[in-house]
Amino acid sequence: MDLILNWLGNMPDFAVPYALAALGLILTERAGVLALGAEGLMLAGALAAIGMQLHFGLPGLSLLAAMVAAALVSVLFAVMVIILRINQVIAGLTLVFFCLGLTSLLGTLLEWTNRPVQGLPPLAIWPLSELPLVGKLFQQNLMVYLTLPLFFAVVWYLNRSTSGMRLRAVGENPQAADAAGISVMTYRFLAIMAGASLVGLAGGYIAVLSTKMWIADMSGGRGWIAVALVIFARWSPWKALVGAVLFGCIEALIPQLAATGVRLPQYFVLMTPYAVTLGVMIWVALSGRGQGDQPGALGEPYVREERR
Amino acid sequence: MPDISSVTTEVTAKPAVRNRRQPLASRRYTVEVRQQMAWHWQALILALALLLGLGLSTAILIAAGVPGGELFNEFVVLTLFDVASLKAVLFQAAPIVMVALAGCLAFRARFWNLGLEGQMIWGAIAATAISLFEIGPESTRLPLMMIAAALGGLAWALAPVLLKLNLKVNEIISTLMLNYIAANFLLHLVYGSWKDPRDAFPYSPQYRPFERLPEFLDGYSFAIPMAIVVALLAWWFVSVCRAGLYLRFVDATPKVAEANGVPVAKVIIGTVLFSGAMAGLAGFVVAAGQEGRLTQAFYQGYGFSGILIAFLARNNPLAAVVVALLVATLFVAGRNLQVFYQIPFSMVQLIQALIVICVAGSDFFIRHRLRRTQGRES
Predict the structure, then answer these.
(1) Phi-psi region of B33 (alpha: psi -120 to 50; beta: other; left: phi over 0)
(2) Nearest alpha carbon to residue B285 among B185, B156, B155, B152
(3) What distance in Å separates residue A131's CA from the closest CA in chain B?
(4) Are the Cβ atoms of B343 and A282 closer than 8 angstroms?
(5) Deepest in the core among A115, B54, B263, B294, taking most CB within 10 A?
(6) What is the pTM of this model?
(7) What's the topology of domain B65-342?
(8) Is the ipTM of this complex over 0.95?
(9) Which residue of B has its CA nearest to A287?
(10) Pairing relation of β-strands A123-124 and A139-140?
């Protein structure tokens, strides 16, 4: 009983970073840019958030800093893939290692490593928080509640707004979009920055609200899992949210099981998120849901002079 | 060909005056694809890009508190004019060459093998298993360990390539996930059943003397000729043998290759497995060379370097050897900086990333020409 209560109570802490990062990646990839740099952008966001939190102690400001920092770093990626037309896989990988090196260097030099910070207090939504079993699900910090409106906003933007439709057009068929007078470069540039700010927010969430300290390489592969999440959510935000909750449940279960005294081989338990990711990818492939939902021009640089 | 872009966007254009002092926004730059460029211009642009990357890295290192003179000493004087350092660099280069070649081959098969580290780990684990369970007589133990390492890496590369070909599972994600799984399994071993019972550190018992790489000449590790042999083998594979010819065909246009009767799937699987085997061997060389045992993080940094070297060398095995030597210098110097100035080792990755950004960016200027077209009205 207690197990389920605590499990559900801790779940959002694990699920929200996946959800936010996946949302950001969907925004970028719907514009046709393969965004493999999530792992690095998360680190950039996390370090910026911790820095602000150590100096000012205002979680709202720290999360904002995380978004701004990741968006700024993503300008580098945008220049690489949009203006300089570097292969998007190489550019994404380079971004990850650029951020990994830079953040661990800055974290060491500025002495921000392992210094605990104060997160956000939980907010109880009164009648719901008294419910049996799922009560703790409604005693979360503000950011958890804000995730849902963010999803609504992005879904509305992509499906209902003119600008969102143009963004998807750029991702599906940049030649046609260009011919229709849409600036492919501008849309892709802004999509990368907007997506990166959400990925950075995810990193900031991990650092300030979940782990509550900075450790080098603290994202620990969660950026890559978010990339995988987007693939098997078929670039649909709601499916990505479901996937994020699923992963949150799995990761939140690990410490709970350990607390009950079940003896599990520790490192096999730590493998589970990665093994599950792999398993889900195979399962999705086996179930035969085709490649149809993938943005048509994903990963292809648009070079106007080379149009045919 | 008329430039449509400059016409459509300049609706409110000024009269057709070719004025040099137009506001910046109305000056238009168009990018043209360049067909050919003289090789000396290409070399100059590449050199400038490298210089820019190195300059940025130096600036960051100096900002991080390393005195500039020391840096010069560390990178140039010691590595080029000091025999002990040269040995260290060559020794460090051996596994990097192998990983880089593994990257080259996989990328030539259009397979993003980001699982080089996982394959290294399994290579080292397999070799260590031979040592731990004392398989085979003493005289053949070392070759046996090498074979086991190659097979270990090969096995870890098998699943992603089959998944990609049969189920179209994205290999970027699958190989990365397998890296994390392998890394955790390694931790499970070195903290668990394979832990050296003699002390409290998380590593396996040390290899016996006859299980370690011997030295030849005076003090040069046997890893160096191994790397040379692997490099020659890779070169032979891609440029001489029949499979290499097929591979180039598959790389250029898989569909046409298939239609012409090239066994595309077999060529891809074979190449990726070869790549995995080389990565596994590299894992063994690192484990056997550094401490002569499995440690918890022996593989770190190699995978990324392998991929970037392959990219910088344009998947050419011989060019990869040259780039790998430079990266090895960076590794050795980075380790010294870590000891003397507490600079985190990921600095090495930052420098590599910077250089790749600059060099990859320079490609744009080689392949394109920037031309200013001032308000060309119709």
Answers:
(1) beta
(2) B152
(3) 38
(4) no
(5) B294
(6) 0.87
(7) ABC transporter involved in vitamin B12 uptake, BtuC (1.10.3470)
(8) no
(9) B167
(10) antiparallel
